Amino acid sequence: MHTRRLSDRFTPLVAPVAAALAALLALPTGAQDLTVTAPPQSRPVTITNATIHTVSGDVLENASITFNNGVITAINTEPAARASTNTRVIDAAGKHVYPGFIAPITELGLFEHGAVLATRDANETGQVSPEVVAATAVNPDTTLIPVARSNGILAFASLPTSGTVPGRASVMAAEGWTWKDMAIKEDAGLVVNWPSMRPNQNWFDTAPKPEQQAKINERLTLIDETFRQAIAYHASKATASDQPTDIRFEAMAKVLPLGAEPPKNPVLINAEELDQITAAVAWAKGLGLRPVIVGGRDAQLCTELLRRHDVPVIVGGTHRFPKRADAAYDDAYTLPAKLAAAGVRFCIASADRTGNERNLPYNAAMAAAFGLDHDAAVRAITLSTAEIYEIEKLGALEPGYRATLFIADGDALEITTAVTHAFIDGREIDLSNKQTELAEKYLEKYRQLGILRRDRLLND
């Protein structure tokens, strides 16, 4: 009797299974942007007849700006000389030129779909993971970055979120083949999630107040011990050649005062309430750290403390409700103006997270509508953000600065304004995205439906 081998029995199944797999692989990948990364700038570009918002200086009417090799080379208010035949000239009559907006608190590239665990990379396991760097997890093919950059957001900071010390923030350009292409500042500061200083009064929190307070104290102790141990580790390492390596403490080196050197990077402390902010600033300054308050809803209540210690605030957006029942309805809207009046350094983030980061300029616009100077509002989403993250040559339009800018057909803080051209380091960026493609799709659908209806009416 002839016995068939096991492989022979399954051979007829191989071709159909392979075909099915090939068909699956050929399907469009979900949540994947299909635009092509722009090549390096190949020739000079001059934008003429524009209103140029330098941010670091005056607003210039009927001016021109020239950039080459990704760097701004000239800004002129006089009539532009005849450009060389190699120069591309863009006539921006009636339009405005701005430095690219910088979103200071985002999960762009780290988050796609809340229901799909594989697309959620903002949350690391464990309470203390300073070795985590957000940049390494940023997905350059996310569909959310092109949506943001189509509204002028050409750079952003991605922050890890979960745990007590979740990792380090990264400032990224809004385009690139890989995360390394996109990284402007890979290590931009260590994130710390400061706990609430008081037990919750929420109806759904059934834990007794002593139990809640004990957990708060545990988190405060964890934060303090983590940083003190890191300082002790580096002090020991400086004198002992056989010091075992701890990757967590090594990752914290830039935010610590080591020897006579001040910290190179800030500590980005998520703190909203007054007692959180004051406790966090006192703790950070006591250890010689450089705190930046992230969120800062109650920052207007401690402006003297923040100004005296030069602690910047990344305002967590103006599109927020008041926290307390007795608070003014415009609490969030007026916070930037109050910080500006008190001399506190600040920038503005979007309260419309991840999928709606494109709304960043409208958060600044709300601040401008409630007391903040218009030019200061533009600065709060450009140069002020670059200064807080200590990124040079970004966030303003000056010779020598990076040619990361965009052209808009009106005031960029107005919701009716459209971005017509955008450049990152001189590279012209494709402004299409999934939302623009869907808009065209359904516009065409209703155009065709309209034609069908008219045909029916004519036939009747």
List the helices and strands and how they pair.
Layout: H1 6-26, E1 45-53, E2 59-68, E3 71-76, E4 88-91, E5 96-99, E6 101-106, H2 144-149, E7 153-158, E8 167-168, E9 170-173, H3 179-182, E10 183-185, E11 190-193, H4 209-239, H5 247-251, E12 267-271, H6 274-286, E13 291-295, H7 303-308, E14 313-315, H8 331-342, E15 346-348, H9 360-369, H10 374-379, H11 383-388, E16 405-408, E17 419-424, E18 427-428, H12 434-459
Parallel strand pairs: 1-4, 1-5, 6-7, 11-12, 12-13, 13-14, 14-15
Antiparallel strand pairs: 1-2, 2-3, 5-16, 7-9, 8-11, 9-10, 16-17, 17-18
Helix pairs in contact: 8-9
Please describe what this structure looks like.
The chain is of the alpha/beta class. Helix content is 32%, strand content 19%. The chain has twelve helices and 18 strands. The strands form three sheets. Strands 1, 2, 3, 4, 5, 16, 17 and 18 form an eight-stranded mixed sheet that branches. Strands 8-11-12-13-14-15 form a six-stranded mixed sheet. It starts with 5 loop residues before the first helix and ends with a helix.
Give the end-to-end Cα distance, rounded to a whole number of Å. 77 Å
| Alpha-beta classification | alpha/beta
Q: Per the principal axes of the C-alpha atoms, what is the gross shape?
A: globular
Range of helix content? 25-40%
